[in-house]
Design goal:
- The complex is a heterodimer.
- By secondary structure, chain A is an alpha+beta fold.
- Helix content of chain A is 53%, strand content 20%.
- In chain A, strand 2 and strand 3 form a beta hairpin.
- Chain A is elongated, with a radius of gyration of 17 Å.
- By secondary structure, chain B is mainly α.
- In chain B, helix 2 packs antiparallel against helix 8, helix 6 packs antiparallel against helix 7 and helix 7 runs antiparallel to helix 8.
- The chains are: A alpha+beta, B mainly alpha.
- The interface between A and B is medium-sized, with 27 and 23 residues.
- Strand 1 of chain A pairs antiparallel with strand 1 of chain B, so a sheet runs across the interface.
């Protein structure tokens, strides 16, 4: 019979949201969580990720329904705006709760 | 060590960065210098010295938004922050009007001769402004305002002792604020380069 975490009295493993757990995406999502809406320049300045990185991660988050992306023009310059959806905000709050719980157990 | 994702601290840091460009300090510094210079050297026009800075508030804020936006992006803050901003704007407006009224009443009505026949009015004006700056320091969480308040308070004493004109504390404070603003602007440009939005 194989041993489980319950045999040692430790809590069952937590299934973290892997879409948010990835370091670059966690950085992007947490920076979006502190605002209602922000543009590409904000995310670039805050995270120091490359344009390609931001774009690919944001597309994945958009596909999951976590982020809404809007493209427009500000004068002649293109402007991409990002916003966490209600689903994305909920998922991030759940993720934070799980991580906080894990860190408390680890202390 | 606290390893939680502290969104409150993150938001505060992002918001502070947005106002760390020094443009507001330069604007306040130059405005106060201008008013101080008018009060010191052009008495006839001293009453309308505040008009020019008032005209430039909107262009200054537009320049700040454009300048910072190119480096830190455009952000719509969360409702609690927007509420905090609105509340502070109202408090600042009320405090500014109250200060103006108090200054005028003090200058025109109150007998401001202190011990030894010293004329306290020029100093009182500087001390009132210092009080306003202390309020701003805590309201806006901008501790550099305490430096401006100290300059005003000390130069107010000097002005009373030397029986100098009331514009001098403003000249001193304006010069300090302008220098601080320029230093902040330089640091800001070094730290946050322009980002291509494409």
């Amino acid at each position: 019979m194989s041993e489980t975490s319950a045999d040692y009295g430790s809590p069952p493993p937590v299934e973290l949201d892997r879409l948010i757990h990835e370091p670059a995406r966690l950085l992007l999502v947490s920076n979006l969580a502190i605002v209602d809406e922000a543009d590409f320049v904000y995310l670039s300045a805050r995270t120091h990720l490359t344009a390609g990185n931001i774009s690919s991660h944001m597309t994945r988050l958009e596909d999951a329904g976590y982020v809404r992306i809007e493209k427009s023009f500000s004068g002649r310059k293109p402007r991409t705006t990002y916003r966490l959806t209600a689903t994305g905000r909920e998922a991030f709050e759940r993720y934070r709760g799980q991580v906080d719980g894990l860190l408390r157990i680890g202390r | 060590m606290d390893e939680r994702i502290d969104l409150g601290a993150m938001e505060q840091e992002a918001y502070r960065a947005w106002w760390s460009d020094g443009i507001v300090d330069i604007y306040v510094g130059v405005s106060v210098l201008w008013i101080g210079a008018m009060w010191t050297w052009v008495n006839d026009l001293a009453g309308i010295a505040g008009v020019l800075p008032a005209i430039f508030v909107a262009p200054m804020l537009a320049a700040h938004k454009r300048f910072v936006g190119a480096r830190l992006g455009h952000v719509e803050w969360r409702p609690p922050r927007r509420g905090w901003e609105r509340r502070n704007q109202l408090v600042l407006l009320a405090a500014g009007l109250g200060l103006l009224l108090l200054g005028v009443v003090t200058y025109l009505v109150v007998d401001t001769r202190g011990a030894g026949g010293l004329r306290l009015a020029p100093g009182i004006l500087a001390w009132l402004l210092a009080l306003f700056a202390v309020g701003l320091a805590f309201l806006l969480d901008a501790r550099r305002m305490l430096l401006y308040a100290s300059v005003l308070a000390v130069s107010g004493i000097v002005v009373v002792l030397l029986e100098a004109k009331p514009g001098w504390p403003m000249l001193a404070c304006g010069a300090v604020a302008t220098v601080v603003g320029v230093v902040m602007l330089r640091r800001f440009i070094e730290r946050y380069p322009v980002i291509d939005p494409a």
